[in-house]
């Protein structure tokens, strides 16, 4: 039985690494982990730090190769969200925006930001290998700007989702308390069973949403640094160690979510 379970786990790991996203997120951990170690060792052991810095650069370029053409996936998402949003607004043009439409708008902002980011990321790679002649520094900064916009939209959406889940969770708990106050054992037991199932699902969604918020917030550190936002606010970029740690946290959460 133990052997069978181990084989299943290995098969699951192979499946994870066989996917483009799985390889990308694993390499992201390698990239930002190396960046963190390079920052930590730069004054302690410059030679080893240089090796980790080189690994960081290689992993970064490798991930860009994985992402070639990824903007097409994002285009499909943006198109679907835009059509759904426009149809919804056409049906209720004179009415106030409902939660669904606000969610669609935030998704549209987020996915559009990521679409521009992927396009620029592809152009950046092609310019790095001298296939195109664009200014790589300007492209990198623009990548950071649109990545930052995409993450802000995603964070806003996840925050709304978290609030909704918390409200639903509290609503079910209140219902359970009311049933308990009625002192009707049969109804209370049935309500308790149903509420327990619902709460379990809500807590799973709450955990997933919380992880997404942490992941996006960590990426926001990297994106803002790439967009040179800290340079304008503080007069200097974020410390390399902080950027590396934030990127590693985001990558690790993505790997956990995909593998799980």
TrEMBL record:
Keywords: Membrane, Peroxisome, Peroxisome biogenesis. InterPro entries: PEX11 (IPR008733). One of its GO terms (biological process) is peroxisome fission. Its main location: membrane. It comes from the Eukaryota. The keyword Ubl conjugation does not apply. The keyword Translocase does not apply. It is found in: Peroxisome membrane. Pfam families: PEX11. PANTHER family: PEROXIN 11, PEROXISOMAL BIOGENESIS FACTOR 11. GO terms for cellular component: peroxisomal membrane. This is Peroxisomal biogenesis factor PEX11.
């Amino acid at each position: 039985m133990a052997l069978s379970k181990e084989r299943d786990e290995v098969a699951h790991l192979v499946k994870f690494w066989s996917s483009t996203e799985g390889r990308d997120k694993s390499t992201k951990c390698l990239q930002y982990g190396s960046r963190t170690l390079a920052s930590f060792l730069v004054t302690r052991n410059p030679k080893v730090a240089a090796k980790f810095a080189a690994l960081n650069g290689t992993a970064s370029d490798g991930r860009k190769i994985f992402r070639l053409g990824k903007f097409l996936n994002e285009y499909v998402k943006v198109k679907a969200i835009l059509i759904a949003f426009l149809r919804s607004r056409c049906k209720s043009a004179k009415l106030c925006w409902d939660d669904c439409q606000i969610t669609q708008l935030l998704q549209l902002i987020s996915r559009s930001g990521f679409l521009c980011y992927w396009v620029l990321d592809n152009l950046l790679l092609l310019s790095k290998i001298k296939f195109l002649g664009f200014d790589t520094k300007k492209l990198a900064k623009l990548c950071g700007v649109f990545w930052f916009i995409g993450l802000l939209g995603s964070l806003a959406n996840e925050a709304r989702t978290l609030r909704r889940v918390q409200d639903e969770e509290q609503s079910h708990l209140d219902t359970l308390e009311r049933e308990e106050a009625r002192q009707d054992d049969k109804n209370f037991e049935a309500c308790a069973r149903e509420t327990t199932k619902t709460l379990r699902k809500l807590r799973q969604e709450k955990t997933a949403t919380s992880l997404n918020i942490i992941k996006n917030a960590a990426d926001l550190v990297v994106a803002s640094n790439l967009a040179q936002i800290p340079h304008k606010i503080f007069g200097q970029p974020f410390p390399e160690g902080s950027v590396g740690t934030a990127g590693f946290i985001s990558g690790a959460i993505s790997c956990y979510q995909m593998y799980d």
